[in-house]
Design goal:
single chain; alpha+beta; Rossmann fold; 5-stranded mixed β-sheet; 20 helices; about 40% helix; globular; RNA-binding
RNA sequence: GCCGCCGUAGCUCAGCCUGGUAGAGCACCUGACUGUGGAUCAGGGUGUCAUCGGUUCAAAUCCGAUCGGCGGUUCCA
């Protein structure tokens, strides 16, 4: 053995997708996008690469080293543009060129903003910073595809490349759109196979949080964000943990890690905890609203948030979306620097058991909300938008783990090669089956031994094998073996010789009847 | 990123404390079987003991660093 060459290895955080997962993924995307389409969203795609500054405007936490985008310098030189889109020139009046930084998209919303802003940019009134029309055009689209995030820590079910399935409405401030987004999520999840009652769409409004801070007297945004972060951990660390982190800090008993406190006065801390606990275990959107009413109605932002929630509730109720599908949960705190109004997420209530026996909770499988600052940072123009995204990979994993049917994926039909000199005949058999819409593969492996071919078919979960040797060709027949039926009957095998003589899962039929016979086996009937 | 635990065959793991160059179950491979996967029987160990370095006559075993996994913490547009 000499040099081994380059060691083949996959990039960490990225995945190879096997045929079963791939098929499931595509099925989910088809089912969900069909729902999106029914609501009037149209399909737009955008490139995987964007100029980093177009994305970067939405990187609220670029200072944290943990996360980031994959980026690199464009190999091609392009002109540098100023804020009005004019080429920058040097003293000699030459156009200044540079290798711009390109980045892989980390979600589908930032590219949407770019796409939308680019449309507006073409309008003279917008470019001159003096919009003649204060009303941005309405735009509804869905999009799916891979997004890329550099994450320092890779939890199970968390990757650096993953699929998102987005739908967004740009150009409307009406919370009716937010209510509709909840319906879309619910419909889409059910279309992919989640049973009613196994999931819930949780809704909150960032304005409620804002109201809480007004009440408690927290004006600083960073501080507010810190408080929300602590609230979000309530189910993990409990009321005493939350109280400690809001005030003096605590030491995590699990890891011994020191968690610094936020230094809130104890009165403020108990107001915050009261807010979180006020709705714990409260069933029904009406009841949640009533609890919040008594706590936040006297703050300007809280009042606003409550009005929005109330309207969303009325719209949902009018459409028949009850508490079995959409709930109000004031602890939901997504995308702190990003969302401006209603926020939603969808979670599965099913438990998944790891091979190790541990129960694993799936995180949110969908997330979304209103982000009225979308285009503002690109064009200085405030454009309302709301939308949500399904995490396709998480949903796929959830369904794969909780649905037995999905695990039983089938391979193609295999045409066994008994006599390599009759390859043309085998390929003709395969062509006939394919013409009937049946996925079919001819054995091209090295040894023509039948046992090896059967083992191959078994591994590949082939449902049917077509066998034709000298006997069959002489009689113009084929032997058709039902591997799934054979598997069922395999338990009865006591004497192999006897078993082979009877071949209970195999039939010999006239060549003309082959397609029909295979079709009926695939349809579930036994030949 | 920080703290803790872990890293031996394809998988689940034993061996490590008390150094003497590896073992179990399952899986896998071969054959009984010249035209039949799953039964049965008979064979087969398929491994740079994560990597690199240190201590030692001798390291899977002791020490250090690195990489990888898991849990927590941070974070999640």
């Amino acid at each position: 053995m000499g040099e081994r060459g380059i060691v083949p290895r996959k990039v960490k955080g990225f995945r190879d997708i096997d045929p079963v997962t791939s098929r499931l993924r595509r099925r989910l995307i088809e089912a969900a996008t069909e729902v999106y389409r029914r609501y009037g969203f149209e399909h737009w795609d955008t490139p995987v690469l964007e100029y980093a500054d177009a994305l970067g405007k939405y990187l609220p936490d670029t200072d944290t080293a943990d996360e980031g985008v994959y980026s690199f310098r464009n190999p091609e030189m392009e002109p540098v543009l100023d804020g009005r889109g004019q080429e920058v020139r040097d003293d000699a009046n030459n156009v200044v060129m540079t290798h711009h930084v390109l980045a892989m998209r980390y979600d589908l919303t930032a590219p949407l903003a770019r796409r939308y802003a680019e449309e507006l940019w073409a309008r003279d009134d917008i470019r001159s910073q003096q919009p003649s029309s204060p009303k941005p055009p309405l735009f509804r689209r869905y999009q799916y595809g891979p997004v890329f995030r550099f994450e320092a820590k890779l939890d199970p079910g968390r990757y650096r490349e993953f699929q998102q399935l987005d739908f967004d409405t740009v150009g409307s401030t009406d919370v009716a759109v937010d209510a509709e987004a909840c319906c879309v999520l619910s419909d889409a999840l059910e279309a992919t196979g989640l049973g009613r009652g196994t999931y819930e769409v949780r809704v909150n409004d960032r304005k409620l949080h804002k109201g809480l801070f007004e009440r408690v007297g927290i004006a600083d945004e960073t501080k507010a964000r810190d408080v929300l972060r602590v609230i979000d951990k309530y189910d993990k660390i409990g009321p005493s943990g939350v109280a400690a982190e809001l005030q003096g800090g605590r030491i995590d008993p699990g890891s011994g890690a020191e968690v610094p406190g936020l230094g809130l006065p104890s009165g403020a801390a108990s107001l915050v905890i009261d807010y979180v606990e006020s709705c714990l275990g409260v069933e029904g959107r009406e009841n949640v609203l009533a609890r919040l009413e008594s706590r936040l109605a006297d703050t300007p932002s809280g009042r606003e948030g409550l009005d929005e929630m109330r309207r969303i509730h009325a719209l949902l109720a009018g459409l028949g979306y009850g508490d079995d599908r959409v709930v109000f949960d004031p602890s939901v705190a997504r995308g702190l620097a990003y969302y401006t109004g209603p926020v939603f997420e969808a979670v599965s209530k099913l438990e998944v058991r790891e091979p190790s026996g541990a129960v694993r909770r799936f995180g949110a499988i969908c997330g979304g909300g209103r982000y009225d600052g979308l285009v503002e940072r690109l064009l200085g123009l405030r454009v309302p938008a709301t939308g949500a995204s399904i995490g396709v990979d998480r949903l796929a994993e959830l369904i794969a783990r909780t649905s037995a049917a999905e695990a039983e994926a089938r391979g193609p039909v295999l045409v066994v090669v008994m006599d390599p000199s009759r390859m043309a005949d085998y390929q003709r058999i395969a062509a006939e089956l394919r013409a009937a819409g049946i996925a079919t593969e001819v054995w091209y492996g090295p040894q023509p031994k039948m046992k090896a071919q059967m083992t191959y078919a078994d591994r590949k979960r082939c449902p049917v094998v077509v066998i034709a040797g000298g006997d069959e060709f002489a009689k113009d027949t084929v032997s058709i073996k039902d591997l799934l039926r054979g598997k069922e009957l395999a338990g009865e095998i006591a004497d192999r010789a006897e078993w082979l003589r009877r071949q209970p899962s195999q039939v010999e039929v006239a060549r003309a009847a082959m397609v029909e016979t295979v079709r009926s086996i695939l349809a579930g009937g036994n030949a």
